[in-house]
Design goal:
Layout: E1 4-12, E2 19-27, H1 35-44, E3 59-63, E4 79-83, E5 88-91, E6 94-96, H2 103-118, H3 122-130, E7 135-147, H4 148-154, E8 165-169, E9 172-179, E10 184-192, E11 206-208, H5 211-217, H6 223-231, E12 236-242, E13 250-251, E14 254-256, H7 259-262, H8 271-286, H9 296-325, E15 328-329, E16 332-333, H10 344-360, H11 362-365, H12 368-381
Parallel strand pairs: 1-8, 6-14
Antiparallel strand pairs: 1-2, 3-4, 4-5, 7-10, 7-12, 8-9, 9-10, 11-12, 13-14, 15-16
Helix pairs in contact: 2-3, 8-9, 8-12, 9-10, 9-12
Bound molecules: flavin-adenine dinucleotide.
Flavin-adenine dinucleotide binds at residues 57-59, 97-99, 103, 141, 143, 238, 240, 258-260, 266, 269-273, 275.
InterPro entries: FAD-bd, FAD/NAD-bd_sf, FAD_monoxygenase
Protein name: FAD-binding domain-containing protein
Organism: Somion occarium
Length: 384
Amino acid sequence: MATSKVAFTLRKGDEPIGHTFHQLITPGGMITFHRPDFQAVLLLHLSSTSCRTHTAKRLKTYLYGQGSASKSESSLLPIHLHFQDGTTATCDLLIGADGVRSAVRATMLRDLATKAQSEGHTQEAQEALAGVDPVWSGLSMYRTIFPSQTLSQQLPGHRVLHDPMIYVGRNTQITAYPISRGTGINFAATRSHWEQENTLFEGPWVQDVSRDELLHAFDRWEPEVVALFQSIEGLNRWAMHTVRPLRSYVSERVALIGDSAHAMLPYQGVGAGQAIEDAFLLATLLGHSVTTPATLSRALKVYDAVRRPFSQHVLETSRENGQLFTLNYPGLTFGTPQENRDAKKLQKLQDLCNRVRKNWEWCWLTTLDADLERAVKMLENGSQ
Ligand SMILES: Cc1cc2nc3c(=O)[nH]c(=O)nc-3n(C[C@H](O)[C@H](O)[C@H](O)COP(=O)(O)OP(=O)(O)OC[C@H]3O[C@@H](n4cnc5c(N)ncnc54)[C@H](O)[C@@H]3O)c2cc1C
């Protein structure tokens, strides 16, 4: 059993004198990675003989079972891939790991909608079409990484140099923690407009913005947060998009994994982790001796039955954590800092911690192993 460690310290920071109100202690605490470091490790282990990587191809669409001569043959016909550069390729199995704006998801759901419509299931068709495009969550996130040394110069001994921090505020939130063995600080500040959730976002999703925009959005925050702002050089603003919960992640011999299936808000920091769990479980099912070209769709159905409920639960609780961190959870809202001086404030913050912990505890109380075992049994027993 891993030693208990502080994963995050929670602090209310949207007032001149902030205060720490909770330490989220978990087995092992939080382990942070800078994404390129992690990707470099994966790349190092890709087999150069069995894997061919094309980094400049963009899938436009795919056609399933094209050229089908008879019903009995159709399950073995290749899937035709059409790329934006005009080239094509074929495959027996297509796994869409192409992110929140997935071309695989778009094709899969449009095909399902056409089929549902032709069978007179209008509502099902509309539901499928609603999942094609990602939706704006109403949240924008300011992101950057800066050297720890710069923060040390701004405020020597700043707690973010050694402690992962979540600062909460009304319609605003900041996560900051050391990465790359303490040499850098990962900084992410959210501005929320929950009333605009599930709308279309006008303009580019990621934009370079000035520090002044951040300072304006985070007016009157406490000095230690201002020290973080002062350490920032370049800054991006991200419009945070999600995928509406899908009815299925698979269709025949096509599967969606990761953000293409369940792009979620990052308030449990687990979107990439969920993508990796999808991939690991799916790879185990595909590599199992009972899986053959003829039974591929069975393996995909088991993947869907096991991973979809779990990842959609994570998606929902990540959203709830976002509401909690921006002090916007239904029944648990906060007024302006000035209005918040009543005795109920501490109780509310305590309720907030309890909910955050409850939402997040799957992360340290469960592992993928039990689901993996269940999935393999389902595959072996022929059940979904
Ligand atoms: C602001 C923010 C903070 C986050 N913080 C965390 C965190 O702390 N921890 C965490 O675990 N997760 C975090 N996430 C979530 C995480 O980034 C995603 O869940 C993860 O990257 C999903 O991986 P993926 O491989 O499914 O998709 P992606 O990482 O989006 O990769 C998709 C790939 O497909 C390629 N692609 C796209 N379209 C096509 C096409 N048509 N044809 C071919 N290729 C295509 C893209 O170029 C890309 O390489 C955060 C997300 C955001 C937005």
